[in-house]
Amino acid sequence: MAGIVGYGAYVPKFRIKTETIAKVWGEDPDRIANGLGIKEKAVAAMDEDAATMAVEAARIALARAQISPEDLGAVYVGSESHPYAVKPTATMLAEAIGATPNVTAADLEFACKAGTAGMQICMGLVDSGMVEYGLAAGSDTAQGRPGDALEYSAASGAAAYIIGKDENSLAVIEDTFSYTTDTPDFWRRPKADYPRHGGRFTGLPAYFKHVKGAAEGLLEKMGRSVDDYDYFVFHQPNAKFPKNVAKMLGVPPEKIRDGLLVPVVGNTYSGASPLGLANVLDKAKAGDSIFVTSFGSGAGSDAFSIKVTEAIGRRDRGRPLSGFLEDKEYLEYAEYAKFRGKFRM
Amino acid sequence: MGMRKVAIIGAGMTKFGEHWDRGFRDLVIEAGIKAIEDAKLTGNEISAGYVGTMAPGSLVGQEHAGALIADYMGLNPVPITRVEGACASGSLALRQGMMAVASGMHDIVVVGGVEKMTDLSTADVSEILGGAGDQEWELFNGITFPGLYAMMARRYMHEYGAGPEMLAAAAVKNHRNGAMNPYAQFQKEITLTDVLNSKTVADPLKVLDCSPITDGAAAVVLAPLDKAKDYMKNPVEIVASAQASGTLALHDRPTLSGIPAAQIAAQKAYAQAGMAPQDIDVAEVHDCFTIAELMAIEDLGFFPRGEGGKATLEGKTAIGNGRVVAVNTSGGLKAAGHPVGATGIKQAVEITWQLRGQAGKRQVPDAEIGLSHNVGGSGATAVVHIYRKVGA
């Protein structure tokens, strides 16, 4: 069985408030903020991208894992904002952290769930004995078209997980279950700057169907119930969706609170559920059980059952996510537009 | 004139809403089969059909709706004809079907209405619906339908001192009715405050003053009244069918606070039926926007000019008040949804159910006479039908 040997989270220091964006577009700031449940979102600086943020998160994960980067046999980066269309983000990450050259590496894309897809691949490689350790990162500088509803949520952030054998883990991944269909709820065509989405279609037939499908599938496969878990992390494109799916599954609100970062960082896409899990691991104690369900448009969900071990104390060697949440600087809309390349000159 | 009397012997409809997993043909066929089953027909008795649909070519790329329906309902070689009159397409189809039976040309006729709208973005759908107005003089200059009806609302408020709460009251009442209709898109009650605090679409209209974008279909089966009892024990007679035209563009009308074509269609319908507004127990009116319902209940003579808003706010059009007339028991376009071509037929289906005593929790007690009022565009086409419970 595989487990989480180390993990790291990174959120850039810049934020833009929902009300700042709403004012630009003549929308009612309170209506938008209350509707989405997002107060502000994290914005990558001009010199940051999915690769640099993944590196920041991976370095913290290595510090916690207490392994040499050369022991990583695999590196995967999941993102929908890879800096290059062709040229891997994963090679940049592997080189930057010193994992090259004896390592397999590749990029993954599955909208908001490529990060957890990478974790599953690493679990398979570790369980089969092909590698001793694998690193899976979810990292995005998500883009929303100016004026689109997505602009209030599309944010920047990254998390990285080092997967190894369970005896060396600070949390064991007991099992995983996926639910995947061809559902066109959100997409971005080649050479397009911004994604398109199906409005309300992204809800019931996309997010809710897949998150519920994966979560219920894993509970049934393991013969478990909601009561067997202390924490739940759901993909969080806004605050409303994860709260509603929790209600549908009978999860009490207090069990999703620590894994719900979207109100203060926005939707970090491939980073979103991995960041939520990182915040829970920062607070969990040995013996706690954590249930994670990601979602990626297109569409699919990966559910994980995770049990925290006595080795959780090793987390103190890495910077906690709370440090990134507290260290912030607000941007005006024009600065944000400049940072995220929304001006064409 | 030697015309035959015509009755509705079967009625059926799909649930109205966002049918993401179902196409144009799935919807219209479901409604058609339900109506045919309701009439206890095998299908072989049908000798003609009419279908109202506004813009399938633009909305789903499918023209030639009549042939598609004949083919997929297994009705070939029965002739099926598409009829178009913007949002009044459904009622126009009903009128064509009724005339075909009345004239003696056909005995059993199936009439449907359908629209599949949610495959496109709201912006695309708004542009397509804009085609119901004057493309050169209105749409080209940036006016959309919420804008046209907002101007009518402004004028109505100016002339009669009506307030936004009177508009909102129509939406509140229709949502209350829709909450009792299992076929409605929105089966949820709302409050006056919800409407007044909702986002402005075109001042003074808020988003909760506007009907939604909807997928859906409805169908009825018509027969000569003297043969209707062979198929169904409680048919509903169509005692009047009147249609009138008005100017295509709003700015060419003599008034903005009422729809002249609807007034004329109503007068003709009452004359045909030998009835007066006071005879109507239940009415389905065209509330594409809340202001449209206030104008409709005045154009139909239920209330004097300028008093529709106050009457609505006072609950005089609610179900079971026993005082005037129950309006939009289905939830209207606002709560039941507005798949444009289907709306006119949905109105006929709702009235049929009301007059047969099959409207469940929203049943109007002792309903014997019903009316439907269907408007195309901002009032360039208006159709009024009056229905009577047979044996009443």
Give your account of this protein's structure:
The complex is a heterodimer of chains A (345) and B (392). Chain A has 345 residues and is α/β, with parallel strands linked by helices. A 9-stranded mixed β-sheet of chain A has the order 5-4-6-7-1-8-13-12-11, with helices on both faces. Chain A has a 3-stranded mixed β-sheet with strand order 3-2-14. A two-stranded antiparallel ribbon of chain A has the order 9-10. In chain A, a hairpin with an 8-residue loop joins strand 9 and strand 10. In chain A, helix 3 packs across helix 4 and helix 6 crosses helix 7. Chain A is globular and about 55 Å long. Chains A and B meet through loops of A and loops of B.
Biggest pleated sheet of chain A = 9 strands, mixed
What is the count of structural domains of chain A? Answer: 2
Large-scale geometry of chain B? globular
For the biggest sheet of chain B, the summary is: 10 strands, mixed
Arithmetic mean pLDDT of chain B: 96
CATH class of the largest domain in chain B: Alpha Beta
Whole-number mean pLDDT of chain A: 96
Q: Which sequence of strands runs across the widest sheet of chain B?
A: 3-2-4-7-1-8-12-11-9-10
Distance between the termini of chain A: 52 Å
Q: Give, in spatial order, the strands making up the sheet with the most strands of chain A.
A: 5-4-6-7-1-8-13-12-11
Number-wise, the strands of chain B total 12
Task: Present the secondary structure layout.
The complex is a heterodimer of chains A (345) and B (392).
Chain A: E1 2-10, E2 14-17, H1 18-24, H2 29-36, E3 40-43, H3 50-65, E4 72-78, H4 89-97, E5 104-108, H5 114-128, E6 133-141, E7 156-165, E8 171-183, E9 186-187, E10 196-197, H6 203-222, E11 231-234, H7 240-249, H8 262-265, H9 272-283, E12 289-293, E13 298-308, H10 321-326, E14 329-330, H11 333-339
Parallel strand pairs in A: 2-14, 4-5, 4-6, 11-12
Antiparallel strand pairs in A: 1-7, 1-8, 2-3, 6-7, 8-13, 9-10, 12-13
Helix pairs in contact in A: 1-2, 3-4, 6-7
Chain B: E1 6-13, H1 24-38, E2 46-52, H2 56-59, H3 65-72, E3 80-83, H4 89-102, E4 108-115, H5 122-130, H6 145-160, H7 164-178, H8 192-197, E5 200-202, E6 205-206, E7 216-224, H9 225-231, E8 236-245, H10 260-273, E9 282-284, H11 290-299, H12 308-313, E10 326-327, H13 332-336, H14 340-355, E11 369-376, E12 381-389
Parallel strand pairs in B: 2-3, 2-4, 9-10, 9-11
Antiparallel strand pairs in B: 1-7, 1-8, 4-7, 5-6, 8-12, 11-12
